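G., before I forget:
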Amino acid sequence: MSDVNAILLLSCADRKGIVAKISDFIFRHNGNIVHADQHTSKKDKLFFIRIEWELNGFALNREEISAAFAPLAKHFKMKWDLHFTDYTPRMAIFVSRHLHCLHDLILRRHMGELAVNVEAVISNHNDARDLVEQFGLKFFHFPITTGNKRQQEIKELRLLREMNIDLVVLARYMQVLSGKFLDHYPNKIINIHHSFLPAFAGGNPYQQAYNRGVKIIGATGHYVTEQLDEGPIIAQDVIKISHRDAIADIQTKSKDLERIVLARALRLHLENRILVYGSKTIVFE
Amino acid sequence: MSDVNAILLLSCADRKGIVAKISDFIFRHNGNIVHADQHTSKKDKLFFIRIEWELNGFALNREEISAAFAPLAKHFKMKWDLHFTDYTPRMAIFVSRHLHCLHDLILRRHMGELAVNVEAVISNHNDARDLVEQFGLKFFHFPITTGNKRQQEIKELRLLREMNIDLVVLARYMQVLSGKFLDHYPNKIINIHHSFLPAFAGGNPYQQAYNRGVKIIGATGHYVTEQLDEGPIIAQDVIKISHRDAIADIQTKSKDLERIVLARALRLHLENRILVYGSKTIVFE
Amino acid sequence: MSDVNAILLLSCADRKGIVAKISDFIFRHNGNIVHADQHTSKKDKLFFIRIEWELNGFALNREEISAAFAPLAKHFKMKWDLHFTDYTPRMAIFVSRHLHCLHDLILRRHMGELAVNVEAVISNHNDARDLVEQFGLKFFHFPITTGNKRQQEIKELRLLREMNIDLVVLARYMQVLSGKFLDHYPNKIINIHHSFLPAFAGGNPYQQAYNRGVKIIGATGHYVTEQLDEGPIIAQDVIKISHRDAIADIQTKSKDLERIVLARALRLHLENRILVYGSKTIVFE
Amino acid sequence: MSDVNAILLLSCADRKGIVAKISDFIFRHNGNIVHADQHTSKKDKLFFIRIEWELNGFALNREEISAAFAPLAKHFKMKWDLHFTDYTPRMAIFVSRHLHCLHDLILRRHMGELAVNVEAVISNHNDARDLVEQFGLKFFHFPITTGNKRQQEIKELRLLREMNIDLVVLARYMQVLSGKFLDHYPNKIINIHHSFLPAFAGGNPYQQAYNRGVKIIGATGHYVTEQLDEGPIIAQDVIKISHRDAIADIQTKSKDLERIVLARALRLHLENRILVYGSKTIVFE
């Protein structure tokens, strides 16, 4: 347990003494805080914190921490999650025919840049199969037709459950997931949208950007909600374009952005740095 | 005339020999080209060029150039404009109560950064008067009420004509100009919009950005057309924000952007680097 | 005292319980923490924190806080500073002949963007006088020759003391200040360097950047130390350039950067967000 | 030959009529110019142009163009190169133990983003072998010791010649190539340096950046010359860091930059958009 840390992500109504009580809880059990970052929304009178401390020397076993913390959480009516830095989440990647984000995630995992296990790659097409299997990963093909969508989602969900998937990434997956599907993974499904949301929401943002003549394009990593392209935004980035950029050039530039923004959003999630708050995120970087 | 250049900005249907004919025209009259930049839209089969040459040693007087070039332009059915680098355009600035862009333009002019004469500052409020007069510039107050808008526009237009205004800049002017007004200055009115268009078009983009929880905000410099916020975009830039930024912080960050983007758009216009093409611009940087 | 906050900026050797003790101190006196951000340097085993709480309802008068906190600070051997958000620092600006940063600071102050009083503008030239006096500010001319530098510094220091200056900004001041001068304002003198330090330290960075053919230039806001251009960096920003940019263009682009970076560095200082640590800064944004 | 273009990259002393003569040459042979971009260095009185036209309908076969153009080139004492867009260059990648750039290049090639054939991957270590062979590419191991460097270079050169390599990319290759080696590939060897040159030239730029406390780090793609880290810069990009970033974080952020900057520099080279001029580049984007 030598280098493992505990991370508490919590929110509650703002009032006096919250930091004092939480830090006292950690101190009383002989914990050393290595990172603490708080945010207070004055407008909504809400308090948010991410606090990380070393388990090494901590008086409680990791199994005991939740029970010990619960009374304090109850007192302040906190919404909270406890994470440990040695847990490697189990991820499924959904993809269609544009494979650049999938490629990138596989390579980052391969190079040890992302602390996540890629348990399954799921697609409505077969294009990704060779690449996925070449890296020794599991590929599942769920073709979608106009008639079978609900049934396929049920099968996909069953597979995700069987594999104990913690986290789903939509790496340019061109199917809309139903609300029923999303309910199983609240704030656990990350999508990359190939525009600077809310600009060019909906279909074919490259074409939309070209038509409008914007001078900058972007990409957006966000949690998926039923309102398409309106989920809480985790990360965004942009790149300049000019009149010289035809749609194919816009696509090429955007693909670099999409890779980086998706990887960044995923890393923030994996490091437990995100609190969702309404349709927005608090990102403790 | 020692250091003066001529600049030709033109567009026409793409066909063979256009560059050859234009450059031959300049060469035959003993001109030295110092900058040439062309763009061909394959999709629309259109040709665009900006070509700049030294008048020093050129065989034609500046008054003779247009007539000499006209047959060639007619042959290729060109739309074209001829500019000379020693002409300093006469500009009017429209502003309401947010003065940061006005401030910035005045200072840039004062420091010699912008080759333009600020002939008039026109406002529907009196807030800017002191600053404007402090720098020895002329201030005109045209209050707008629900009933007098058309009449005030007529008076403003008369003033602009009397002052031989070439160019209007809307430096956070919160009134919508009528189509009739715009018709007098086609592609000669530059607006700064305080969002990354087309995101957050319309009113209160700071609030919209805050509500949506975007991680990046922007500003857009564009020519004004009747379709509000849909004119051809000249320049855009962005800056990162986070959950820590309240609306006042977003405003502070945005104001820096707005100054810079407006100044950049204006400079591109003053240097005759922009060709408008449908709802888009070609910017020869 | 309704909206005033107290801000504690402190550092000490890292050990358990620091956050708990500080937050308990605030909570015991009925304070409400509105912002807390900590950083732990694992490598150097050092702890840094910025913590801000409301004085409204706090049990101690602002005059009593330091004495009440001192025992805790002594126990942990803290280096600490206490600030109040209603104190407006008194600033002197040093400038030579490039006035764009001075201009910018004066305007931001004029528009209420910076919570600082510009008490004096000091220059080794007279170029800035008109502008400074036009805005009703005090201008002092201290011409520097090869022989009089030390004497002029003594006079400048006397003036700064008489005016109770808290903070000095070098807004493109082209004289090197002596170590003796700097000793009077440790981490209280901010300089803007017109390059992306450590690239192009020393003289004429525009020319250096042009000669080297870099594709991006930058500007750096930093605290001044005796080692020229090696003081702790507060803020940096960059902009793209190309082969088309002659030295004059590089200068024009850089001047926009310099304004923004200096204003950002100054704002971070004024908001008490900076802890200096060796030759580096911790910036709690 | 339907969609093939010819590209002329040339430079010469600036004088009147160059554009006219070149465009007339193309027009006389019935060529349609699709892109022309020129640059004139006023300071050095030099002229640079990139001009691209369609071979479809052009009166000369591609084998005849050079001979037909030679008299004109001789008259103006031009340095020039002629390229055709259907030629796919043959590239060798040199790499040591950091494989992220290699990975990225292989994937981009695999996805069809780069018009280049990866003929060989050469390394002084064996780390890259599995990945390279997994993608069906050829891997060559040339271990370097203190004594064998010159001999290994001779063998590497022989291999490059046998494989008709046009272009070498150093994708984080940690050996310095000798001047004799470089002489065989003038302006044909591209390196990625993991800093914003000229800042942090030499070894371990991540550590240097950390120690200096900069707020932005960068990466630089450049042609390799004998003066280490001083070759003509093709592309640079940067990313923000903060006091929170330990060296491992700086490395992670930098690796994203390095991939993108190397890919961008390579693409500009492959599209024949670069003219080298002394220690600088003209990049016709």
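Chain A has two domains: 5-84, 90-283. The two ends of chain A are 25 Å apart (CA to CA).

More on Monday.
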